[in-house]
Amino acid sequence: MSNVRLRRRRELTLSPSGSGHPMTRAELAEAVNQYLWKTTGKDLHLSVDTLRRYEHGQIRWPGGMYREALRVVLGVETDADLGFVPTPRGRTAVRKNSAFQVGEANLPGELIHHAGDARPSPATPPMPSGAWATMPLGVVAASSTHRSPTAPKGEADAGPAADEAARESWWHLATATAAIDPTGIATVHDEIVRLARQYDILPPAKVLVDARGTRDLAYGLLEQTRRPAQLTSLNLDAGISCALLAVASFDLGQPEASVAQARAAAKYADVIGHAGLKAWSTGHLSLVAYWSGNPRDAVRIADLALAAAPDGSASARLHAVRARAWALIGDQREVADSLQRADEALASSDGTEEVHDEIGGEFGWGLTRNAMCAGTALVTVGDAVEGADRLRETIAAAPGTVSGHLVRRSRIDLASAELAAERFDAAVDQLRYIWSTPVDQRRVGLTGRLDRVQNALGHPRWKKYQPAHALKDQITAFTGEADDHRSLLLAGGVASGAIAP
User: Fold this and answer.
1) How many Å apart are CA 298 and CA 313, to the nearest integer?
2) Where is the composition biased (Low complexity) (predicted)?
3) Cα–Cα distance for residue pair 42/120, rounded to 1 Å
4) What does the pLDDT look like over 421-456, one tens digit per residue?
5) Contacts of 424 (CB under 8 A, 6+ apart)
6) Which region holds residue 160: left if phi is over 0, alpha if psi is between -120 and 50, else beta?
């Protein structure tokens, strides 16, 4: 069961960045780590992954120091205020007739683990006890060859082997737990969140450059740490950066590069076992197939993704994409079934999926996007009346009426619905909001929809209607400017970084 109290308390706390958004997991983890450093002088690392497990209820009773830090940072008085409850075993376990007690009181400070988290978190590993622990490794190896004259032969032979094995264990620990300042990781993650949430207002070329830089920064940090929690966080950040590059590449008219980036993001998701990122990345591959005129491939890819997708918003998005693909095929029954499943999946969402819900922005999937996708599918499959209703629902729910790519795309599809109903003037009225779109914001999702409007204007009913011919010319000029702009970007090398992950 999810720890709703902890998640809600975090979301009620404003981001220290001053953005006005709720505090992210990365920001909360960083604040906890800073508190622990200031109060204990120890490098105790609470990772974003572990914090996610707290919020998902997988860890119900964290270590005492982490509970204290969370109470202070989030401004509550008791553990219960954060939904923490003691587990039957508590935090320690005592083995009868044993010299060891496993718990915070008996471990070196640097080796205290998160409750339920088997990852050690030292910046510098503790050294083994014993006189030889202070010797250089070469001296240790040399001294271990000494053979006691009174020791049996077997014992004497075992001594050097035991020392060597101990030395190897501690050396591996030293390299395996090498860590970096968590501030750097939090900075990378915050930049990714910013790009995702501002994608709607940023030119795709700008996102391409910035996301590539963020990805490369994550790559560099990955080479500097061996700590499992940090590796997981950085691999997630690299994967999300590739996902952003996939979107920007597609919007710049580079579908092959977009596919390569989405596949890279999916591989990162496989490495760290992140079902949400895998669902989003595979869903993007389905969308590229859809826009490339391969709806059956889009359905097949969406079905594969649904088999392993998390419940809630991630599944809702895949069902909605599937509906659009079936609409191109012309199967009304499958469209209706997919849209119903999308609505049901979204209604069941608890809002805790990291990519679709918590990072959100370009990755987000809520009621507005779900309604737009449903409207697009319904208009495409021939149900212009219901499709128009869903699209008007999108426009009414989205902030503003003349800005935002979600609204623009909805208005173009609504224009298609109006043309299907032979309401030419109503279609023109919807399109008047589109013409002011800056050329660097004319994305493929926008111009591709306009191409469909232009195709609709080729219907015999508009053949002798001069205003229809004028509208077709206007669309040709608008999309042509966008094509020229993308070609200039590619020729200038701005978009070339999208070609390979």
Assistant:
1) 19
2) 151-163
3) 13
4) 899 999 999 999 999 999 988 998 899 999 999 999
5) 418, 462, 465, 467, 468
6) alpha
How far out from the chain centre does Cα 448 lie? 26
What CA–CA distances, in Å, run from 243 to 25, 90, 240, 284, 452?
20, 40, 5, 9, 27
Separation of alpha carbons 358 and 16, rounded Å: 17
Name the average pLDDT for the chain: 81
How many structural domains compose the chain? Answer: 3
> Which residue, of 247, 273, 299, is where some domain finishes?
273
Question: Hey, how many other C-beta atoms are within 10 angstroms of the C-beta on 106?
Answer: 10
Would you tell me the crossing angle of helices 367-381 and 384-397 to the nearest 10 degrees?
160
- The whole-number pLDDT of residue 357 equals 93
Describe the crossing of helices 405-420 and 367-381 by its angle, rounded to 10 degrees.
Answer: 30
Which helix (DSSP H) or strand (DSSP E) does residue 67 occupy?
helix 64-74
Q: Which residue has the tokens 């966008």?
A: 482
Q: Tell me: the pLDDT tens digits for 364-405?
A: 999 889 999 999 999 999 999 999 999 998 888 765 433 488
What CATH number did the domain enclosing 74 receive? Answer: 1.10.260.40
Q: Tokens at residue 327, please?
A: 């609409």
Contact 443, 251 (CB under 8 A): yes
* Token code pair at residue 88: 């039957």
Output the six-digit token pair for 463.
């053949």
Task: Say whether both 233 and 267 belong to one domain.
Answer: yes
Residue-wise pLDDT for 177-236, tens only, equals 456 778 888 888 999 999 999 998 899 999 999 999 999 999 999 988 888 888 999 999
Mean pLDDT calculated for residue range 74-90: 83
Pair (14, 35) in one structural domain: yes
Q: Within a 13 Å sphere around the CA of 328, how many CA atoms are in the beta-carbon half?
A: 18
Q: What are phi and psi of 374, to 5 degrees?
A: -65, -45
Instruction: List the end-to-end C-alpha distance of the chain, in Å, as a whole number.
Output: 37
Taking Cα atoms as reference points, which of 411, 413, 408 lies closest to residue 441? Answer: 408
Is pLDDT at 109 greater than 60 in this prediction?
Answer: no
Structural domain boundaries, residue 187:
182-273
Alpha-carbon distance of 431 to 416, in angstroms, equals 10
Tell if the pTM clears 0.85, that is, is over it. Answer: no
pLDDT at 365: 94
Highest average pLDDT, of 8-12, 69-73, 228-232, comes from: 69-73
93-94 vs 101-102, strand pairing mode: antiparallel
**Is 102 in a helix, a strand, or coil?**
strand
The pLDDT of residue 147 is 41
